[in-house]
Structures are given as structure tokens and as C-alpha cells.
Amino acid sequence: MIAATDDLARINAILATRDRRGHTRRAERVDTPGLRACLTADEREYWLARLPCDCGTCLGSAVRRGNEPDDARAADIARYRSKGWSEARIARAVADRDRAVARHARQQPNEDSAYWIGLLTALAEGFGLQQVGLMHHFYRKSPGAEPQTARRQKAGELAKAAEALACMEDGVIHDFLIKAPHR
């Protein structure tokens, strides 16, 4: 999360009131060299992670990760052949993998967009922010070590961001506008 605040304790207090599922999300202050150029002077970068991991989130869930399926299939077949597997055994293994991938694709994320919209709205309103940035990234190293570079993208009004959250590109800061509540 990218926000114009230094108050980590208050961020975590707001997070604690929002998470009631037993996997409390915590904020940690991070300083990623590749993101510094993207931030304004008053903005700070926070890693919002659920312990022990953040697997299954809806963020970017509509975006395909990794290699194309045909490339992965070809690599698997080459690996099986190098192990001396028979063509029949390879065919069974590939069919089993295809069934597993199809099952996985039907699974729904364990945190839907309404969860994220509510969480980010609560954080923004708790600090009186008009905008909050959010970036998701599949880390291969520790947070703060990646990504090397990033870019910012306007993502529209947070209250209407369900599709934008699901289609988030990896390593892009998405800036959401917070609509002031009607009083």
C-alpha cells in the first residue's frame, strides 16, 4: 500500500479492527529502492501481509502468471522424457496436470474485492486520505528488495474497483480515489 502517512501503529490498529478471520493482516514499513522515484515526499510504502502468507488473495487473480500453458507443458514433457518415462506415462502425467490446473482455475479467491475495498476505504478514511495506492507483487526475495522499477497507474474510484483489483498487473502501483462519504 502506498499512503501519505507515517503512522504505522495506527495503520495496524485499523487493520486489526477489519480482520476477524484469525489471519490478521499486518502492515510493515518497507523502503523499496525501485519505488522511491514513484512516491511523493509525503508518501510511504507499506507491505500489507496476512500471516503466514498472502496466498489466495483476489488481487491480480484474473491475470495469468508465469509461462504460457503450452510452454509449461512442453517443458514438463521434455523433463519426463529426460527421466526415461514412457509415452503412456507422460500422457497420464500431462492429463493429470491439466485436470489439476482446471480445478485450480475454478477456485474463488479467499479474499474478494469487497474485502479489499472495505479495508482500503477504512484505512483511507482513518487518515483522511483522498487517494491510496496499492501494488501487488509476487516476491522472489524479501519485500524491499523488489521490484527494481515500477510505474503508477490511475485506477479510478475505489468503491467501484472490483474489476481493477482482479486485473492488477504485477509490480504496478494502482492509485485509487477515495470518494468522500455523504454526510
Structure write-up:
The chain is of the alpha+beta class and 183 residues long. The protein has 2 domains: 128 residues, no CATH class; 38 residues, no CATH class. It has 6 helices and 6 strands, in the order E-H-E-H-E-H-H-H-E-E-H-E. The strands form 2 sheets. It has a 3-stranded antiparallel beta sheet with strand order 1-3-2. Strands 4-6-5 form a 3-stranded mixed beta sheet, with no helix packed on it. It is elongated.
- How much strand content do the residues show? 15-25%
Low-confidence stretches: 105-110
Q: What is the terminal separation in angstroms?
A: 27 Å
Kindly provide the radius of gyration, computed on alpha-carbon positions and rounded to a whole number of angstroms: 20 Å
Major sheet size, sense and barrel closure: 3 strands, antiparallel
Count of all domains: 2
What is the overall number of helices?
6
Structure classification: alpha+beta
Average pLDDT, all residues: 78
Q: Write down the secondary-structure element order.
A: EHEHEHHHEEHE
Question: In total, how many beta strands?
Answer: 6
Shape: elongated
Arrangement of strands in the largest sheet = 1-3-2
The oligomeric state is: single chain
Helix content: 25-40%
Care to give the gist of this entry?
The protein has 183 residues and is an alpha+beta fold.
Main traits of this protein?
single chain, 183 residues, alpha+beta, 2 domains, three-stranded mixed β-sheet, 6 helices, 6 strands, 38% helix
List the helices and strands and how they pair.
Blueprint: E1 2-3, H1 8-18, E2 25-30, H2 33-36, E3 44-50, H3 69-82, H4 87-106, H5 113-127, E4 131-134, E5 151-157, H6 162-166, E6 172-177
Parallel strand pairs: 5-6
Antiparallel strand pairs: 1-3, 2-3, 4-6
